[in-house]
Write a structure and sequence with these properties.
It contains 15 helices and eleven strands. Helix 12 packs across helix 13. The protein binds manganese (II) ion (MN).
């Protein structure tokens, strides 16, 4: 395993580089790929101006919102028979690259840059960071190496961070906030980007949300919220799979719900089970029991079978996870902390 510095040297020394996104691409994987290409072009081509960098995305169609990220970027054109270096971005496992997996492993060297705790470290070298998003990881790497980060790259990285964190409400750390502050200070077009990603839902998505909410059921003393979307629902709403992204958040946003599930029937009749957790409930653990993965509070898995057969084992796993986190009323402590307790102990001290 090479050090971080050596991995970045590999990038500098490679003449032909291929960057790979994951299937069903989200903003984080697309923005990471484009930002990485630009970072390399702008910082690492002094001695090698004719560096070739190609981006590969296995996706039939990408919706307008995420598609804007790669609108003017050429993708899926193989300009080199055997790449010197293949880099995957935001892929927790090799299968996430879809049909381009073989091209990735055909490269002389492979590098995996990601932020999923469940990453399988499938490449020769693996940079798996504990960041909100792959974009946040790239920003940190660029800062460490003192690379020039153009406004354009900054816009891309910001897009990956805000979308992967559902507008800074999931998976964020103090570093995420510090980076966002730096980006705000640069006066990049934050308001326009927020509008683009969060106030731009299609009618199809609204109809799909309506369908999902009408299927909403509560279980385990209302700590589990379940929703379902059928193939017919997607067809009726004229929606694509991408339109389903984020709908599960409407379940986890409900008071008292600690696990939200959304089962989406896919074209091949398998199910995509999207999960969200809160109050320390780890849905990543549950997803990994079913061959999936993700993060502690944002996870998913594929299920090839009948939903009725999945129901019992899945609910059992959810209930076991809920038992680890008995319900606590936080209520006003959320705003006022433990001041009262501290005051009590202080007064006890003085009384004694
Ligand atoms: Mn990501």
């Amino acid at each position: 395993m090479r050090s971080l510095k050596q991995c970045l040297e590999d990038i500098a020394e490679s003449k032909n580089i291929a960057i790979f996104c994951h299937t069903m691409p989200d903003a984080d994987t697309l923005a990471s790929a484009v930002a990485l290409k630009k970072l390399i072009k702008q910082n690492l081509t002094q001695e090698m101006p004719d560096k070739q960098i190609d981006i590969f995305v296995d996706a039939d169609e990408i919706n307008e919102i995420n598609g804007a990220i790669i609108k003017n970027v050429e993708t899926n054109v193989q300009n080199c028979e055997k790449y010197d270096l293949a880099i995957s971005v935001d892929c927790a496992s090799a299968s996430r690259m879809g049909k381009y997996q073989d091209l990735f492993f055909n490269a002389k060297k492979t590098l995996n840059i990601d932020h999923h705790a469940t990453n399988t470290e499938f490449a020769d070298n693996n940079i798996v960071l504990k960041t909100s998003s792959t974009c946040e990881g790239l920003y940190i790497l660029a800062k460490i190496r003192k690379y020039t980060i153009s406004d354009e790259v900054c816009n891309l990285l910001y897009s990956g961070i805000i979308t992967d964190t559902n507008n800074l409400t999931q998976n964020v750390t103090i570093y995420t906030h510090k980076i966002i502050t730096e980006m705000v200070e640069r006066k990049i077009n934050i308001e326009a980007l927020n509008d683009h990603f969060f106030k731009n839902n299609t009618k199809s998505k609204a109809y799909l949300l309506q369908k999902a909410l009408s299927s909403l059921r509560f279980l385990s003393s209302d700590r589990i919220a379940i929703m379902k979307l059928t193939k017919q629902d997607l067809a009726n709403a004229d929606a694509s799979f991408e339109d389903t992204l984020g709908i599960v958040n409407h379940g986890i946003d409900i008071k008292g719900v600690d696990i939200a599930l959304l089962a989406i029937k896919q074209e091949d009749n398998s199910y995509y089970i999207s999960m969200r957790g809160k109050n320390n409930v780890n849905v990543g653990n549950i997803a990994s029991q079913f061959g999936g993965g993700g993060h502690d509070q944002v996870a998913a898995f594929h299920y090839d079978g009948n939903l009725t057969d999945l129901q019992q084992p899945l609910l059992k796993a959810c209930r076991e996870e809920l038992l680890k986190h008995p319900k606590e009323e936080i209520g006003e402590k959320l705003f006022f902390g433990d001041d009262e307790d501290q005051e009590n102990s202080a007064s006890n001290l003085f009384n004694e």
